[in-house]
Design brief:
heterodimer; A: mainly alpha; 0% strand; flat; B: mainly alpha; Four Helix Bundle (Hemerythrin (Met), subunit A); two-stranded antiparallel ribbon; 6 helices; 4% strand; elongated; transmembrane helix (chain A); Cytochrome C oxidase subunit IV (chain A); transmembrane (chain A); cell membrane (chain A); membrane (chain A)
């Protein structure tokens, strides 16, 4: 697969996950829904990091540093919101 | 600062691991992500403390506008990444056109966001309205400033590309600028569900 095709595939994945987030958000305010929306956000962040920012070819330290940022964010948001659900 | 970082792995397969752009840009991105992390977590904790207030505040936002904002930023990111790929293949002029497309797509984001800000301000939902809108304006406003800076960077890169300043062996500055733009996307994909979607 050429680099351009990979980038377009990443964008398609990002668009699908964005639509899915909004649909999930309108489905209700449950812990399961929050987890699903955050998982979609995590998937999008990883697509940007590995696809657009080309971290899949980067030294592992930098790749994991950037990939772990959305994981920490999603975990923090889930922890905070689970208190109020 | 070095222009790029390369580490040799095995000689037979995957010979090099390459960090695109300038190393300084990656440290800048880490610093920016740390600041945004604090803002995003503050928003989440405030929502946990006042869930009803945040639920009511979110009802006043249009999630379809949020979706359109997301798609315009992601499309702009795609064009910027494609431009970088074209420059690496010695197609600098095509790269300049793609950067212009990235700029136009980002302008859609700016237009939509200004429309949203204007609507909220005219409805009396300013920064002092309540905790939700205080954090909404701070968080999205800080991100919006980054988008505006990104527009300046994309314009500069497009012009330099048009002049033929970048090529296959000389595109570290272009990569750094494009990386900044992807960082803006990266923050938005976490900001969007937190502000517009998660009740």
């Amino acid at each position: 697969m050429s680099a351009s095709t990979t980038l377009i595939a990443c964008w398609l994945g990002l668009a699908v996950l964005s639509f899915a987030s909004v649909q999930l958000g309108s489905a209700g305010a449950t812990l399961l829904m929050v987890c699903a929306v955050l998982l979609a956000a995590l998937g999008k962040a990883w697509l940007i990091a590995d696809g657009f920012m080309e971290l899949r070819h980067a030294p592992p330290m930098w790749r994991w540093l950037i990939l772990s940022w959305p994981v920490v964010m999603a975990a923090g948001v889930l922890l905070a919101l689970s208190v109020s659900l | 600062m070095s222009t790029s970082l390369e580490l040799t792995l095995r000689p037979d397969a995957s010979p090099t691991r390459h960090l695109p752009g300038d190393l300084a840009m990656w440290f800048f991105i880490l610093a920016e992500l740390t600041v945004f992390a604090l803002l995003l977590l503050t928003f989440a904790v405030a929502q946990a403390l006042q869930p009803q207030l945040f639920h009511d505040g979110r009802q006043l936002l249009d999630s379809s506008t949020g979706l359109a904002l997301t798609l315009s930023l992601l499309t702009s990111g795609l064009f910027a990444a494609l431009a970088q790929e074209q420059v690496r293949q010695a197609q600098a002029r095509r790269g300049a056109w793609l950067l212009l497309a990235a700029l136009l797509s980002a302008s859609v984001y700016v237009w939509l966001k200004l429309g949203e800000y204007s609507h909220l301000a005219n409805s009396g939902l300013g920064m002092e309205h309540n905790t939700f809108f205080t954090l909404y304006w701070i968080l999205t406003g800080f991100h919006f400033v980054h988008v505006l800076l990104g527009l300046v960077i994309l314009s500069w890169l497009a012009e330099r590309c048009r002049q033929g300043a970048y090529g296959p062996g000389n595109c570290s500055a272009l990569e750094s600028g494009v990386l900044y733009w992807h960082m803006v996307d990266l923050v938005w994909v976490l900001l969007f569900p937190l502000v517009y979607v998660l009740n």
